[in-house]
Design goal:
Blueprint lengths: L2 H21 L10 H16 L10 H7 L2 H16 L22 E7 L7 E8 L12 E11 L2 E11 L2 E5 H9 L1
Antiparallel strand pairs: 1-2, 2-3, 3-4, 4-5
Helix pairs in contact: 4-5
Length: about 180
């Protein structure tokens, strides 16, 4: 084999190694602000429909992929404090997406991404989660605002807030921070 053929073979081998490296994802980062929100909303709907097959919103896998570092720090600090208090394995008293203990698979779901502001992108999820219950809440519409930030080249959730009459009624990050105290 002459020198030009060796150079071409070496170049092609280098390209093949580079292409193989690209094919192996190191970390799955969301390219769209609504992607991590949709994953959590899908899990909430699944959990309400199939509570015996519960999907953890905060599994190690999800924490590493779809939540901000700041959120993860507060979440872990809350768990550390709660474990010290021997809280029987429960961190929160209700499902943080449904904002209740019981619910239904989500119905009439809409997810909208707003314009970015002050370093974060609001993603709004609106749904009915109590229509299957025989309560006065069966017609209640839940409005959740996900604060999504760009981190390490992808979008991740920094907070989950519930909104009523245009005002925030609770913030998951604030709740976790209170639990960590």
């Amino acid at each position: 084999m002459d020198a030009p053929d060796m150079k071409l073979t070496s170049l092609l081998a280098g390209i093949a190694v580079f292409a193989a490296a690209l094919a192996v994802p190191a970390v799955s980062l969301a390219a769209d602000a609504s992607t991590p929100v949709r994953e959590i909303i899908d899990a909430a709907s699944h959990n309400a429909a199939s509570p015996d097959e519960y999907e953890d919103y905060f599994s190690d896998d999800r924490l590493g992929r779809i939540y901000s570092e700041a959120f993860i720090d507060v979440y872990r600090a809350a768990w550390k404090k709660q474990e010290a208090d021997e809280n029987n394995g429960y961190l929160l008293g209700a499902d943080p997406i449904l904002n209740a203990q019981d619910g239904c698979a989500l119905k009439d779901l809409s997810i909208e991404t707003a314009e970015p502001r002050d370093g974060w992108t609001p993603v709004y999820a609106r749904y009915k989660a109590f229509y299957c219950l025989n309560t006065e809440s069966k017609d209640l519409v839940t409005d959740a605002q996900f604060m999504v930030v760009k981190q390490s080249g992808g979008f991740v959730i920094d907070d989950i807030q519930h909104i009523k009459d245009g005002e925030m009624t609770n913030s998951l990050r604030q709740t976790l921070a209170s639990l960590a105290e």
